[in-house]
Amino acid sequence: MPEPQVLPFAARAAGCPFTPAPELYAMQKEEELSRVDVPSPILDTFEAVAVTRYEDARALLSDERLQMGFVFDPDAPRSMLNQPGNLLNYNGADHTRLRRMLTGAFTVKRIRALQPVIEEIVAGRLDALAAAGPGADLISTFCTPIPTLVICELLGVPYADRADFQRRAQVGLDVNATREEHITNLVEMDAYMGELVAAHRRSPGDNLLGAIVRDHGDRLTEDELIGIGNMLLVAGHETTASMLACSSTLLLRHPDQLAVVRDEPAALDGAVEELLRYCSPAITMPREAAEDIELRGRRIRRGERVVLSVLVANRDRALADTDLDTLDVRRAPQPHITFGYGVHQCLGQQLARAELRTALPALFNRFPTLRLAVEPDAIDYRTTALVFSVNTLPVTW
Amino acid sequence: MVLKVEIEEPRCVAAGHCVTAAPEVFDQRETDGVVVLLDAAPPPGAYAHVREAALLCPAAAILLRERDGSA
Ligand code: HEM
């Protein structure tokens, strides 16, 4: 077995999993654009421009010439990157058409209306944690179930199927799985979602999948519906679970900042933004230049791939004259690209924020003496996936 | 100084930042979340929120025009 690889543009400093590797800061200082070799199970290794500066990332993500390079090709073999219905595989008018079929379910009002559902789910997981008792793993009792239950409820996916779809989501995001594993995995995901979609075609349910079939079903193919369902299921739980895991880990290691999240409702929104900036769970956004692009007098050539390094861009020292490598939940609002930027900016971001704002203070209020049951150095971080996270986190109180 | 707000509806991606930042000036269409401008000439008290909304908008769909108070 080869050593699991960490993507070079998402490397972290030795012993500091929340701090970008020094090489990334070195790239950020370079005036020239850096090019790196990116290992990929699906595309083999490819060369790409690594974007590490915040202003470059924002400029490029709002530049229409920089596109999703993996647009759906019906004749090529199906893979994570070649899946109809997934918004991340579309550009321009095709993207807008699909995205606007979904945005009605994610408006600020609709997410506010979900608040009682989120609160009930969080309360249920707090009871489960209490029942599990000191020594419980916070990830599997709290961090992963909350967003999973929320997206199941919203979409209309049976929670009982979670072991399978969570495993498939993790394979899908694993940079070290083989191409064959990715393809088999996608076949399984499609088969599972295909059955759910077929059931909604027969009788559209009272949930998001049912609503999409009811309102837009005549303009969407089965493949597109399956792709939409899979995209929402994976995007809806992995990243938010990671945010809960990373935020809990960090706050338990910084009790003064935990106290702010627990005791100061007025500071909560800012604290959650800071945690989002600091954790950067979705580590990259891959793109391709559809035309030559001039950036600060340097050139990205047509056809070149581009990868954005979210973690280091969120720490760009050009943004502030303070130390952005320190977590500070009271920090003045600091811009970040944790949800991306431009037309693909996260569809589920208001839902993710609502989950974080509900779950974190509730956890620390219910268990005021909560602390790590593992040495900080022994925490098991997940560094070799497209979503950074913590694998297990034993806690006690 | 007077602030006028314009929106470019086709650009909107319904990320929801404007409604969170300046609910007195922006709303979202129920069917698809696309921005609805409630007040194209908001009172000065809302300027800070409107500027924040324009800054956060990921799709540059909010245009602000500043003019002299005399204009
Ligand atoms: C803290 C949690 C989350 C983080 C950090 C996150 C991060 C991201 C990022 C960085 C992108 C842009 C990718 C790119 O431009 O290449 C994105 C897009 C997306 N996210 Fe999220 N996400 C989160 C939660 C969610 C949730 C809860 C959902 C669904 C319910 C969701 C659904 C989506 C979808 C559908 C897209 C594609 C949008 C498009 O291409 O137009 N995300 N997310």
UniProtKB/TrEMBL annotation, chain A:
<dbReference type="InterPro" id="IPR002397">
    <property type="entry name" value="Cyt_P450_B"/>
</dbReference>
<keyword id="KW-0349">Heme</keyword>
<comment type="similarity">
    <text>Belongs to the cytochrome P450 family.</text>
</comment>
<keyword id="KW-0503">Monooxygenase</keyword>
<dbReference type="GO" id="GO:0020037">
    <property type="term" value="F:heme binding"/>
</dbReference>
<keyword id="KW-0479">Metal-binding</keyword>
<protein>
    <submittedName>
        <fullName>Cytochrome P450</fullName>
    </submittedName>
</protein>
<keyword id="KW-0408">Iron</keyword>
<dbReference type="InterPro" id="IPR017972">
    <property type="entry name" value="Cyt_P450_CS"/>
</dbReference>
<dbReference type="GO" id="GO:0004497">
    <property type="term" value="F:monooxygenase activity"/>
</dbReference>
<dbReference type="InterPro" id="IPR001128">
    <property type="entry name" value="Cyt_P450"/>
</dbReference>
<dbReference type="InterPro" id="IPR036396">
    <property type="entry name" value="Cyt_P450_sf"/>
</dbReference>
<dbReference type="Pfam" id="PF00067">
    <property type="entry name" value="p450"/>
</dbReference>
<keyword id="KW-0560">Oxidoreductase</keyword>
<dbReference type="GO" id="GO:0005506">
    <property type="term" value="F:iron ion binding"/>
</dbReference>
<dbReference type="GO" id="GO:0016705">
    <property type="term" value="F:oxidoreductase activity, acting on paired donors, with incorporation or reduction of molecular oxygen"/>
</dbReference>
Automatic annotation (TrEMBL), chain B:
<keyword id="KW-0479">Metal-binding</keyword>
<dbReference type="GO" id="GO:0005506">
    <property type="term" value="F:iron ion binding"/>
</dbReference>
<comment type="function">
    <text>Ferredoxins are iron-sulfur proteins that transfer electrons in a wide variety of metabolic reactions.</text>
</comment>
<dbReference type="GO" id="GO:0051538">
    <property type="term" value="F:3 iron, 4 sulfur cluster binding"/>
</dbReference>
<protein>
    <recommendedName>
        <fullName>Ferredoxin</fullName>
    </recommendedName>
</protein>
<dbReference type="InterPro" id="IPR051269">
    <property type="entry name" value="Fe-S_cluster_ET"/>
</dbReference>
<keyword id="KW-0408">Iron</keyword>
<keyword id="KW-0813">Transport</keyword>
<dbReference type="Pfam" id="PF13370">
    <property type="entry name" value="Fer4_13"/>
</dbReference>
<keyword id="KW-0003">3Fe-4S</keyword>
<dbReference type="GO" id="GO:0009055">
    <property type="term" value="F:electron transfer activity"/>
</dbReference>
<dbReference type="InterPro" id="IPR001080">
    <property type="entry name" value="3Fe4S_ferredoxin"/>
</dbReference>
<keyword id="KW-0411">Iron-sulfur</keyword>
<keyword id="KW-0249">Electron transport</keyword>
